Amino acid sequence: MDRLFNPTDAAIKDSRSHRALVNMGLPIIYTTNYDRIIERAFELNGVPSHTISSIDDIAMAPAKATQIVKFHGTFDNDASLVLTESSYFDRLEFESALDIKLRADMLGKCLLFIGYSLSDINIRYMLYKLHKLRNRIRRDADSIPSAYLLTFGAGLVQRALLAQWDVYIEELDPVNKSASTAAFLESLL
Length: 189
Hints:
The structure is a single chain. The protein is an alpha/beta fold. Helices cover 44% and strands 14% of the residues. It is built from nine helices and six strands, in the order ααβαβαβααβαβαβα. The protein has a three-stranded parallel beta sheet with strand order 1-3-2. Strands 4-5-6 form a three-stranded parallel beta sheet. The longest helix is centred in the last third of the chain and has 17 residues, at 121-137.
C-alpha cells in the first residue's frame, strides 16, 4: 500500500485540490488517508505542517504549523493503522487521544467533509455525535452550521436527516469529481 499511494512530486504539485488545501491556511486538517500526500503537498510548497497520529504528536505540535491529523493512522506508524473491523469499532468509541482532540475541535469549529460517503456508518455516527455535542452547548440558534459535506449525490432522505443535524450539503459534479472538488476548494480562497 505504501507504494500504491505514493505519487510523484510533480503530480502532487499539479493537483489543484492539494494546492488549494495548502493555500487555505487551515489550522487543522483531519484525514482518514494513510498516505503522506497532504503532508508532501505542504512540504513541496514550503508551508509548515505537523502530522498527528498519536498523543505524543499532539503534545509536540508547533503553534504555527497546520496540524494534519491522521485519524485512521499513517503508513509512517503501521501500529496506528485502522484497517480491520475491530479497529473501526474501536475508533467508533471515540475514546482515544485523537478522538478527544476531534471532539474538542468539533465543538469550536465548523467542519468541512471532503471525499466521504454518506453510506459510511463512521461518518454518519460522527455527524450524529457532533450534533448532540453542539446542541448541549449551543446558546445561539443562529450559530454556524456544524458541518458542510461535499458530495457527488445525496438523496432526499439523507438531505433531510443531515439538515436536522445542521449539516449542509454541497453537491459537486459526479462526472468530473476531481475538477469540481478543486473548483470548490479554490472558491474558498
